[in-house]
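Retry 2 of 3 after timeout on previous attempt. Resubmitting structure tokens to design endpoint.
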């Protein structure tokens, strides 16, 4: 699908909704680890502004209404996505993340495609990567 001016219709991703079992722990994690204030919250969700993209963390109990008839996946089923944040210095950010109580899944490491990365998990089980 294209716009009338022949450019692709998606011009960016404005929001990503992540389903979480423990909304309070996830809100605390995003405030403390990412240093982000809440952009919006209600009883079932909290929204954080990551620059050009909003990350909405939504209780899994409320997710069914959003995606029905598709099922909400169980966090033990494994990860099906990774969110990447650019950083100036992966090693320095890993030290900062550790100081904030974050356990790295991997890294820092140099990838064959020319970037340096490290990954960690939020309380909802979503994988975040930092990369340079």
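Retry 2 succeeded. Sequence:
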């Amino acid at each position: 699908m294209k716009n009338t001016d022949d450019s692709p219709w998606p011009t960016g991703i404005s929001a990503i909704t992540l389903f979480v079992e423990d909304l309070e722990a996830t809100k605390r994690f995003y405030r403390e680890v990412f240093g982000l204030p809440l952009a919006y919250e209600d009883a079932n969700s909290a929204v954080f502004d990551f620059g050009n993209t909003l990350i909405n963390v939504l209780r899994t109990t409320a997710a069914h209404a959003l995606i029905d008839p598709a099922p909400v996946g169980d966090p033990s089923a494994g990860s099906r996505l990774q969110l990447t944040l650019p950083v100036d210095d992966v090693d320095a950010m890993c030290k900062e993340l550790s100081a904030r109580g974050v356990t790295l899944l991997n890294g820092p490491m140099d990838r064959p495609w020319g970037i340096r990365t490290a990954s960690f998990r939020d309380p909802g089980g979503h994988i975040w990567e930092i990369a340079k």
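Attempt log closed. The chain has three helices and eight strands.
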